[in-house]
Design goal:
The complex is a heterotrimer.
Chain A (H helix, E strand, L loop, with lengths): L1 H27 L3 H6 L11 H8 L1 H34 E2 L3 H10 L5 H14 L6 H25 L3 H9 L4 H12 L1 H17 L2 H5 L8 H12 L3 H26 L9
Helix pairs in contact in A: 1-13, 3-4, 3-13, 4-7, 4-10, 4-12, 7-10, 8-9, 10-13, 12-13
Chain B lengths: L3 E2 L4 H26 L1 E5 L2 E4 L3 H7 L2 H31 L5 H11 L6 H11 L6 H8 L10 H29 L3 H9 L4 H12 L1 H16 L3 H7 L10 H11 L2 H28 L7
Antiparallel strand pairs in B: 2-3
Helix pairs in contact in B: 1-13, 2-13, 3-7, 3-10, 5-11, 7-10, 7-11, 10-13, 12-13
Chain C lengths: L3 E8 L13 E8 L4 E5 L6 H9 L6 E6 L2 E2 L10 E4 L11 H11 L4 H14 L15 H13 L6 E5 L7 H18 L2 E6 L2 H7 L2 E6 L2 E6 L1 H6 L4 H6 L6 E4 L1 E3 L2 E4 L2 E4 L2 H9 L4 E5 L5 E3 L7 E10 L3 E8 L2 E8 L8 E5 L6 E4 L2 E2 L2
Parallel strand pairs in C: 3-8, 3-9, 6-7, 7-8
Antiparallel strand pairs in C: 1-2, 1-4, 4-5, 9-10, 11-15, 12-13, 13-14, 15-21, 16-20, 17-18, 17-20, 18-19, 21-22
Helix pairs in contact in C: 2-3, 2-4
Classes of the chains: A mainly alpha, B mainly alpha, C alpha+beta.
Chain lengths: 267, 289, 361
């Protein structure tokens, strides 16, 4: 009966883990006065007013649009530069390859706070402040190394004979890469896309520093609205629930590949 | 498994190098530049050498924040890595349960960090929050806004809740990649479940656990938004971690000391990540003949 | 050492098997003689591995019993059946030394250190692993790793049988024959029952004294390599064993002859009578080696068109067409092959008939 004990443990963990998210859902369906007024396990008088407000006020829904835009751009950039680089790391030995690989990782180690001011100055100089592209590029700092890392693992799992055969058959590198190799690691690309999406979606410091109004992300919208109007918990909770949705959709599409994600080629 | 030797591969890495270099090296140079100067205004600055570094290295509050940070990251690794592995071991291997548990596990990862802090503020409130009400209902006085220990427990709980799924997802990926023959051989060899874990599953998870340990170490060492929103670094300075202190410092003081602080901070993470990386690469591969 | 008996064994991976095709292993009986060296030969996906796993206990069969020396072991877990199994990819415990790897099964059974040391020493000696005993198993090559997995089975002195599941797949070709020789030595020394799964007929024929051929979840023939060659019980055996494989031609039967593509091929009278009485689609089978090709017509010969001749050094392969059918004939090196038209003789004593794939006899 060992198996059952494990499953019970897992269900228990997942249940406890979902409590804060349930609480957020609970609050999102109540008015602010109701939330602050009394403790309640479930909304006695559920209201969708919070959601309606988010979907009808531009200050709110534009935040989602902005976030989605720069996160998508970032995911696209990260993938398109990381793919060839990961291929190089998985297939070739070249001058400084190991150092380069570790150096890439070090870029995840710098405190974002360190980069705030220099980033602001850099992007001001080139006139990119408050644009989606600025946030997307700045997020490459931590997403590109991660993308290279994951993709390299997937690519190492593909036998090198495939490349050799294709080159002998007269494929040029770009044609081989796009028409043979990329389809082979589709799963890896899906998982990488999820991780890039996730880390870019939840990042706040850089996104907030580099934007003012036009490209303001949803996470920033939430903090600013809070400070302007006092704490509207219900509204905030509804916004929080809605921030989970896009990522949950992404993971639903790549769920079958998740398990294979990091492990291929590195076991 | 020899790789092809070809320096032309650099052309493939070049886009990544350029992109990351723009985002990393130029700002880093700026920070280094600040760290050795005293700036009074535009065009009015003097070279101060290592003065800011000496200042920072002898700063008592920075020391405190640093030890606090080590304690925090140490606890994070000690709790999240084993817990994540346990969850991964308990997850189903096939069927609809796989999809459900994967998607559910990913949910906490998808919430913006400041929102997490905000949600936990109300979740732990003794009057209207589920956790706060539950703990006080059990007869404990629990208030993270006044008692440092309670604040620590709350921050740790939030951190474990938020990030253990990442470790679990990685560990699960590692487990799924172990060929079935290993488990069959172990059954024939009469290995106990513990021996299977100790000699097959754990060694085979080394690759993914390296990633998990490094990611969790780096990110927990850099943690800012969640505890800042939840506790503001208090009560007192009890939850003022390095990043929180760095931000406090840079708003209260010149950019020079803050820049020096940043560099020290960065070097610490670099050093430890390197140590972890080396240690995990070499564990269990002692043969060097 | 044990005689392994399978009684009415069948296995399906589906929870509720219904049709015959739901079974990975079709119901049948089989006996593996004590001390025999068997090769289990068949195409990928024919159920070889399933059969092996049923014997070792990794799989509980859906139906039937497994007997070791007459004792029912169907419900025993693999570690209590005293079998050793070597898998396609070497299974070694990465973090252990070679010594620890070999000692692992004994340690799990609570044997004392001195005896473990003696046993491991003996097995390592035999497998030529002694110089590596203190090294990490992970650092060794695929062939040494495969020897370690074999050794983990051999250290248990009470081993009943060794099962191999395509163990040489990942071994370099020039090391393959060395390992194969080692296996043969071990078998001769210990007289263990040995079952060796492979899809490579050369491997099967060189290693085993008995070859079992499996198709679609069923053992269709067991015999010496010569039996399989001369007397295939199933069209698949004829096709799979030999290079090129047996010619299999759909045919109809008349008294004393088979009709293929409108041509009469003389048969043994009793054979054609039997074939006339059985149900099912008839096929004629003949090995390329037994066909005679001549320039001029002879008694019973059928006209064929010569499409291609390949000279392979010691012999020639002629590709011929008889109506819509293609036939291969293996000819002596010195025989001149006629240009376009020729006459082909089917020696009646070598010509077989199959009904629904099974030999008519």
């Amino acid at each position: 009966m060992r198996l059952q004990k494990r499953t019970v443990g897992l269900i228990l963990y997942l249940g406890v883990m979902l409590l804060p998210i349930y609480w957020m859902l609970n609050m999102s369906l109540r008015t602010n006065a109701d939330i602050l007024g009394a403790f309640a396990f479930y909304p006695a008088d559920p209201t969708f007013a919070n959601y309606v407000k988010i979907f009808t006020e531009e200050a709110w829904y534009s935040g989602y649009i902005n976030s989605t835009i720069y996160v998508s751009i970032n995911t696209l950039i990260s993938l398109s530069v990381a793919l060839p680089a990961a291929y190089a790391f998985s297939r070739y030995r070249f001058l400084g390859d190991k150092h380069m690989f570790f150096w890439l990782l070090t870029n995840r180690m710098a405190p974002p706070a360190v980069f705030l001011l220099p980033f602001f100055q850099l992007y001001s100089t080139v006139g990119l402040i408050d644009t989606h592209i600025a946030v997307a590029i700045s997020h490459c700092l931590f997403n590109v190394p991660l993308a290279v890392w994951i993709l390299e693992g997937f690519m190492s799992g593909v036998p090198r004979e495939i490349d050799e055969t294709a080159y002998i058959d007269g494929y040029s590198f770009p044609r081989f890469f796009v028409s043979v190799f990329v389809p082979l690691i589709r799963a890896g690309i899906g998982v990488t896309a999820f991780f890039c999406f996730m880390f870019s979606w939840v990042e706040l410091l850089l996104a907030r520093t580099l934007t003012t109004t036009v490209a303001k992300p949803i996470a920033a919208t939430m903090t600013r609205t809070v400070s302007a109007t006092g704490l509207d918990w219900g509204l905030l909770a509804a916004a929080g629930i809605l921030t989970i949705v896009p990522g949950a959709l992404v993971i639903w599409f790549v769920r079958n590949y998740m398990a294979k994600g990091f492990a291929l080629g590195r076991v | 498994m020899g790789k092809w030797e070809d320096n032309k591969a650099w052309f493939l890495v070049l886009p990544v190098f350029l992109l990351v270099a723009i985002s990393a090296i130029i700002p880093l140079m700026t920070v280094v530049n600040y760290s050795v100067q005293d700036i009074f205004g535009p065009g009015d600055r003097i070279f101060v050498g290592t003065e800011w570094f000496e200042d920072m290295l002898s700063n008592r509050r920075l020391h405190d924040a640093l030890w606090r940070q080590f304690l925090f990251s140490g606890l994070v690794l000690l709790i999240e890595i084993p817990l994540g592995v346990l969850i991964a071991l308990a997850m189903p291997k096939r069927g609809w349960g796989v999809s459900v548990s994967l998607v559910l596990l990913a949910l906490p990862l998808l919430i913006p960090w400041n929102v997490i802090g905000t949600i936990w503020i109300i979740f732990t409130r003794p009057d209207i929050g589920l956790l706060g009400v539950a703990i006080n209902g059990l007869g404990f006085e629990f208030d993270h806004t006044s008692a440092p220990l309670d604040a620590w427990i709350t921050v740790m709980l939030m951190e474990v809740w938020h990030w253990t799924p990442l470790v679990a997802l990685l560990a699960y990926a590692g487990l799924r990649a172990i060929p079935e023959a290993y488990f069959q051989a172990a059954r024939i060899d009469g290995a106990s479940p513990w021996a299977v874990f100790r000699y097959i599953q754990l060694p085979k998870m080394r690759g993914v656990l390296t990633i998990a340990v490094l990611l969790r170490f780096m990110d927990s060492f850099l943690i800012y938004a969640e505890p800042f929103v939840l506790t503001g670094g208090g009560p007192g300075n009890s939850t003022t971690f390095l990043s929180i202190y760095l931000v406090k410092l840079s708003t209260a003081m010149d950019v020079g000391p803050a820049a020096a602080f940043s560099i020290i901070y960065f070097l610490i993470i670099l050093l430890f990540s390197w140590l972890f990386y080396q240690a995990l690469q070499n564990v269990g591969t002692g043969d060097r003949q | 050492m044990a005689r392994i008996e399978l009684k009415q064994i069948a296995h399906s991976y589906l929870p509720k098997p219904e049709a015959e095709s739901d079974y990975a292993l079709r119901r049948h009986d089989h006996v593996w003689r004590d001390g025999g060296a068997y090769a289990l030969l068949g195409p990928s996906g024919c159920g070889k591995t399933t059969l092996l796993n049923v014997i070792s206990g990794l799989i509980q069969p859906t139906e039937g019993r497994v007997l070791y020396d007459g004792e029912d072991v169907t419900d025993l877990p693999p570690q209590r059946r005293n079998i050793a199994q070597v898998f396609q990819f070497p299974v070694i415990y990465d973090t252990m030394t070679v010594y620890e790897n070999l000692a692992f099964p004994l340690k799990n059974r609570g044997m004392d250190t001195a005896r473990i040391e003696a046993r491991v020493g003996e097995v390592a000696e035999m497998l030529e692993l002694t110089p590596h005993l203190r090294r990490r198993a992970m650092a060794l090559g695929a062939d040494a790793k495969q020897k370690i997995s074999l050794g983990r089975g051999l250290v248990r002195s009470d081993v009943a049988a060794i099962l191999f599941d395509e163990p040489l797949t990942v071994i370099d070709p020039h090391l393959k024959w060395q390992l194969r020789r080692k296996l043969k030595q071990i078998h001769e020394r210990y007289h263990l029952t040995l079952i060796y799964v492979t899809h490579d007929q050369n491997e099967a024929l060189t290693l085993a004294d008995q070859v079992a051929v499996m198709v679609e979840g069923e053992i269709v023939q067991v015999g010496t390599p010569q039996d399989l060659f001369e007397d295939p019980q199933h069209t698949f055996v004829g096709y799979f064993i030999g290079s090129p494989g047996m010619n299999i031609l759909p045919c109809a039967v008349e008294p004393g002859a088979a009709v293929v593509g409108g041509q009469r091929i003389p048969l043994d009278g009793r054979l054609s009578d039997k074939a006339g009485a059985v149900q099912g689609a008839l096929e004629l089978g003949i090995r390329p080696e037994y066909l005679c090709l001549a320039e001029s017509s002879a008694n019973g010969a059928v006209p064929v068109a010569v499409k291609r001749v390949e000279d392979l050094g010691n012999y020639k392969i002629a590709t011929l067409s008889l109506g819509a059918h293609t036939i291969k004939a293996k000819l002596p090196e010195d025989q001149d092959v006629p240009g376009e038209q020729a006459f082909l003789t089917f020696p009646p004593e070598r010509t077989k008939l199959y009904a629904d794939g099974r030999l008519v006899a």
